[in-house]
Amino acid sequence: MMFLVTKFCCFSIVVTAVCGRYVTSTDAEPQQTFRITPNDIEANQGDEVVLRCEIEHLAGRVQWTKDGFALGFSNEIVGYPRFSLNQNHSDGVYNLRITNTSYDDAAFYQCQVGPAKHNHPIRAQAKLTVLATPKDLHAKYSRA
């Protein structure tokens, strides 16, 4: 049996010799792509925020980064007890949840999907800004 595989962009063409005849089949392999990308968010200190990330045709592994620092692949994020990854692999949902936001949480966050067979890595970024509430400002300036 002899076969030839030729690739053009996102499609595979397979030519196979079957009983002395050549049979051609085309497999369109869908690429992983974002269904929902995270949006920039402004939150008050103490709020809960969810940075949304949903992927169609998921093939690679998903993780979040904070200002370029990788937060890992598991639901619980070591060193960040207020952070959690709400994931549903079968639906391609990988939302980052941050409870009781603080000023230290203000950063650029990136949802990263790694490469996989026939899929390039993809990334989407959002900025979290944490604002002071009027109560915070009053407490800060009433101490002076």
From TrEMBL:
| Major localisation | membrane
Task: Tell me a GO biological process for this protein.
Answer: cell-cell adhesion
What membrane topology term does the record carry?
Answer: Single-pass type I membrane protein
Keyword Amino-acid biosynthesis tagged:
no
Record's keyword terms, sorted: Disulfide bond, Glycoprotein, Immunoglobulin domain, Membrane, Signal
Intracellular or extracellular location(s) = Membrane
Q: Which domain of life is it from?
A: Eukaryota
The record places domain Ig-like at 30-129
Which residue spans adopt a coiled-coil conformation according to this UniProt entry? none
InterPro entries documented for this protein: Cell_adhesion_signaling, Ig-like_dom, Ig-like_dom_sf, Ig-like_fold, Ig_sub, Ig_V-set
What is a single cellular component term in the Gene Ontology annotation? Answer: plasma membrane
Q: Which Pfam families match?
A: V-set (PF07686)
MF terms from GO for this chain are:
cell adhesion molecule binding
Q: Which residues form the signal peptide?
A: 1-20
Does the record's keyword annotation contain Phosphoprotein?
Answer: no
Entry protein name? Ig-like domain-containing protein
Can you name the source organism? Anopheles quadriannulatus (Mosquito)
